[in-house]
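STRUCTURE:
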């Protein structure tokens, strides 16, 4: 086993509870274990099982990566991964400053000052989770995610399972996914996505840095079984692209209805038009709506 360590400074308004809640979704804790002061997560590091341990202190976060494999020397990629997962690269203060005076959103931003969007460890994790969660309840989506990890994840020596990569999922059969509870459409979409990545047609990790959201969306929407909501969610949770219009999300529409004090349910077109002026941060608006009680 080898290990890498790094320390990052935190903004004074960093919301640790948001990150821990995101990784506490699955109560069975197969791939993530949330502690009082941080979390341990199974990840694949250069194809090898690893455990990423993140611990929060007063104004900083320390991270250790323990890899079941040869000695790793460069901590730079680890720092980049932790900064990405914690949302430290997101320009949330610019967003809050620009819209502080908005009559409905401004008070919400003040209550949630410093809110960032916790990220999945990889774009593939975010995208496969979005496919699994299409048009079903959160508990059912969590159950499907767990079964995918059990089917294709790799075990780390800590006992945690590492979320599978595209190569592992591509090796599955549709019948295995169907037996685990995936619908035919979800199983086919997951396999198509994974096999396109393995073939080199969808370089998600390369797209993480610099690729325009519109270009990513165009390539993903060309895949059968992947629609606008799935792409917007994956852009937000996997690529930290903050301008997706999540008007197709039922929770966004429901919370916006509460924010506006509307007696009637809000349509997707109305929600899309209401979010439009907040570009290029429309997805951050959605995140603030999700954070409402």
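SEQUENCE:
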């Amino acid at each position: 086993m080898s290990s890498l360590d790094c320390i990052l400074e935190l903004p004074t308004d960093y919301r640790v509870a948001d990150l821990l809640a995101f990784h506490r979704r699955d109560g069975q804790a197969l791939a993530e274990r949330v502690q009082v002061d941080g979390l341990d997560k199974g990840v694949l590091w250069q194809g090898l099982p690893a455990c990423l341990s993140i611990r929060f202190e007063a104004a900083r976060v320390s991270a250790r990566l323990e890899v079941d494999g040869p000695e790793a020397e460069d901590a730079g990629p680890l720092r980049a991964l932790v900064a990405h997962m914690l949302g430290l690269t997101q320009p949330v203060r610019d967003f809050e400053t620009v819209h502080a005076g908005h009559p409905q959103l401004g008070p919400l931003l003040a209550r949630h000052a410093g809110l960032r969007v916790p990220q999945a460890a990889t774009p593939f994790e975010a995208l496969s989770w979005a496919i699994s969660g299409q048009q079903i309840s959160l508990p059912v989506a969590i159950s499907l995610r767990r079964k995918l990890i059990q089917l294709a994840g790799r075990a780390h020596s800590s006992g945690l399972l590492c979320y599978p990569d595209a190569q592992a999922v591509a090796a599955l059969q549709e019948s295995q996914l169907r037996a685990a509870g995936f619908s035919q459409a979800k199983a086919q979409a997951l396999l198509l996505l994974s096999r396109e990545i393995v073939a080199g047609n969808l370089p998600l990790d390369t797209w993480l840095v610099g690729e325009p959201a519109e270009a990513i969306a165009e390539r993903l929407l060309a895949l059968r079984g992947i629609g606008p909501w799935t792409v917007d969610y994956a852009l937000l949770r996997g690529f930290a692209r903050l301008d997706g219009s999540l008007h197709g999300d039922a929770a966004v529409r429901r919370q916006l209805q509460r924010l506006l004090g509307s007696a009637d349910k809000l349509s997707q077109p109305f929600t899309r038009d209401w979010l439009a002026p907040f570009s290029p941060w429309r997805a951050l608006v959605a995140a603030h709506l999700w954070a409402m009680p």
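REMARK: The mean pLDDT is 94.
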